[in-house]
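Team,

Forwarding the record for the chain on the shared tracking sheet. I've put the sequence and predicted structure together so nobody has to dig through attachments.
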Amino acid sequence: MKPTSRLLITGGAGFIGSHLAEALLDTGAAVTVLDDLSTGRRENIAGLLRHPRFRLVEGSILDEVLMDAEIRDCDEIYHLAAAVGVKLIFERPVRAIKINAGGTENVLEAACRWKRKVFLASTSEVYGKDARNESPGFRETDDIRFGVSMRWCYASAKILDEYQARARYQENGLPVVIGRYFNTVGPRQVGAYGMVMPRLVQQALEGRPLTVYGDGTQVRSFTWVGDAVKATVALMAHPGAVGEIYNIGSDEAVSVIELAERIKRATGTASKIEFVPYKEAYGEGFEDAHHRVPDISKLRTAIGYRPTRTLDEILSGVIAAFRAQDGEDPAAPGGTADSGESGGAGGRPARTAQAAEGAS
């Protein structure tokens, strides 16, 4: 990456986006974050607002004029903005489809016009209903299978995003790299948009019951945010990654009930574990994926990727981050989604915060 690079992160005030912004600034690049702050938070980027090479634009990826102007003025795009959260998407599927599919279309069309390279943040949700359960986990070439529940509209919109990106690569020569994030966790993450680990950690630290949805046998893996960011940056720098899809995650598997037990031990809480039926958590018709663990061999071959933290080390980092907070409550009903993206598409008028504004 050239030190003079101008980089755009959609959804950059979100959890992964804010960590990515820091990493890209460390390379010497100028970074613009575009976010509508609907699920992203200004607090996530508060430490960057005075940085001379950082710029915040409050706006929507549904704003075609704004997206064209911002993409024209950048060299590369990291597209992380999306409607996220299992409960939110299950309850408001029309909004989710419009933002995730329509917003991505705007980004890709502008990128084609101005010939800009794009990283598309996708999700392990696209693997759907456990089409592949056995070790070593989901491969990028595996077939996918969705159910009829509206829960799968998020996954369907994200796989459409991938097809849009691949079609632009095939027909227009647009350089695109697609990364499927698997349950990325770390500081600044909240449980309100579907992540099980931060919700359980917060409940444990507050001495409340740890709520496990379903029977707790569903299997997940968790990725430290620093590893996800390093992989993202490395893939964009790797010429062979253009036009390809990569799982970004960890292959250390754990059931949700075992995760809750580990959190109890790590926090020393006396809280009990309570099982909550999916119907009670989400309403009628909800379906969950039982197994969601990646095969990361393709990513390892491409960039030499290896997770730097075990699950217990990740838990220690997440617990430490929550203990350092000033009492925010991220324990709104969530689930076990694997989004990793942030907002950035709510349709509010665009506002720009230059580096000298709004620091706290």
